[in-house]
Specification:
4-stranded antiparallel beta sheet
């Protein structure tokens, strides 16, 4: 299963993916249809993702394990103040959301 992000489009999906040495990667059934981030939300950083087609993807194995990864979302509030959140994904598949405060 993969969580795949299209950075340019600001969208993401969760889907089954079948892999074999003969066919490479082949997208399967969408478990979560394509969803879009809010119009002012930006993907500020993606770490630990791999390139699959035109998307960045995080692969989850049947036992729920994955690579350690980071997703950072940002939004500019009126007045130029930025808000950021980090989603930290551990190798066991657990995730933590934290707000990032910046001193200016």
């Amino acid at each position: 299963m993969v969580f795949a992000v299209d950075v340019g489009e600001g969208s993401f999906v969760v889907e089954n993916i079948n892999r074999s040495s003969n066919s490479g990667s082949e997208a399967g059934h969408f478990l979560v249809p394509k969803l879009f981030l809010g119009k002012d939300v930006k993907l500020a950083q993606l770490d630990g993702f791999e390139q699959i087609g035109n998307r960045q993807a995080l692969v989850f194995w049947p036992d729920g394990r994955t690579k350690q990864a980071l997703i950072e979302l940002a939004i500019d509030k009126r007045g130029g103040e930025a808000c950021k959140w980090q989603i930290i994904i551990e190798e066991d598949g657990s995730a933590t959301l934290k707000e990032v405060f910046e001193n200016k």
